[in-house]
Amino acid sequence: MELDVVELSRLQFAMTAMYHFLFVPLTLGLSILVAIMETVYVMTNRPIWRQMTKFWGTLFGINFVLGVATGITMEFQFGMNWSYYSHYVGDVFGAPLAVEGLMAFFLEATFVGLFFFGWDKLSKVGHLTVTWLVAIGSNFSALWILIANGWMQNPVGAQFNPLSMRMEMTSFYDVVFNEVAQAKFVHTVSAGYVTAAVFVLGVSAWYLLKDRHTELARRSIAVAASFGLASALSVVVLGDESGYSVTHSQKMKLAAIEAMWETEPAPASFTAFGFPDQEARETHYALHIPYAMGLIGTRSLTDEIPGIAELVEDAETRIRSGIIAYDALKEIRKDPNHAPADATALFEQHGKDLGFAYLLKRYVDDPREATAADIAKAAEDTVPTVWPLFWAFRIMVGLGFAFIGVMAYFFYVASFKKMTFPRPALYLAVIMIPAPWIAAELGWFVAEYGRQPWTVDGVLPTALSVSHLSITQVAMTLAGFIALYSVLFLIEMGLMIKYIRKGPYLDVPEMPAVAGSAPSASRSAPAAGLQPAE
Question: Which end of the chain has a smaller Cβ tally under 10 Å, C or N?
């Protein structure tokens, strides 16, 4: 990778974004799980569920604070490192971010405070309402972020204005209900639910292995397994929907993920295994599943999925069309108030390909001076590096099916085997704790790296989006972020481990008539005087 301002800026944003996303999935999922636990408490009036709500709520709070801190930094980077991007698409991209900040963030942050400090100030139903508003606020916040990101993947509801030299929104409805944004939202949120379920399952399994807080652990496993199984199944279904939307909006990304070098006869096969060779344009030792990719990508047996070679040819055609648009834009800009009619007509016809002409800026200052070789090289630039996408996607999918298996097993044991969990299964649950984070980070890598060389797909190349900074300036801020985030990571892990080791403040025993057995003795504090409410 060439060490320049563009690559350093990409590296910095990737580092901060992927670090921030360590906190997002757990926040999304744990907020729902905590709300479910408190709902059971309000419905049954059993103190064990209040204890569970408070304990898992404490871990949610730690994670929430770190997530907010790292998320704010990301938004500052748009102005610091990506100023031309902010200028070019700010009218569109800024709208969902503003809604997220004004509505979802304030809703979420306000009710988080009430959740922690309102236990003795609000009624049970009032506090439960606050808890659900925290959960709704967390997920609502994710919605607007993913609408903004979805627009970068599929820029609908906007058009380029040659007078302002910016993208301008034409339909807020189209931006909000962009098929890519909606598919990304439900898929990302479901992945967050799986992350929280695996986390609760693993921590609870560790308590059972240590024979601590067993009442809380068993009930937490029951909730996490049922919630996690439903979420893991939905991730697969909604991931399929994401793949279907990519077929329409980002054909090159899909071809790269599948290492589909040439267009296959319909229906295309799915490459389950292989070693992509980008120079030779082939996949060595490929193991194909017939028809699978055609069914996933097109939902039919007759529609083709274009391969990389065909898409490169299409990109070359669009680059030539973009050069016409670029020339017409220059004519319009000479006198914007009295633009020649023929130039305006040409721009209206070819303007949708203007971004492809900007790909030539890597090779020539004026795209109109590009040679056939320059155009061919720019067309090749539309192909992302295939092998990381190929393997990241397959590892992510493999982990997704592993989550289904683990959750199904624990759901079965919790439902039909009286929660008698074998120790090897409990060890497996503990070992699995990092896995959903790995899957989530790989998913974001596929989504963002697969979009290259575009910041906004087909509209604005990444190479043109950066601020006018020196390599030294970007390298210094990158080093600063790495140092700061390393400290924050150590704080996060230290606090989480501390409160997990500490466990709940008191072990609340269940009534024998309810629990089906004599209450266990408290291992962390006496339970005298704490009787379940009538």
Answer: C
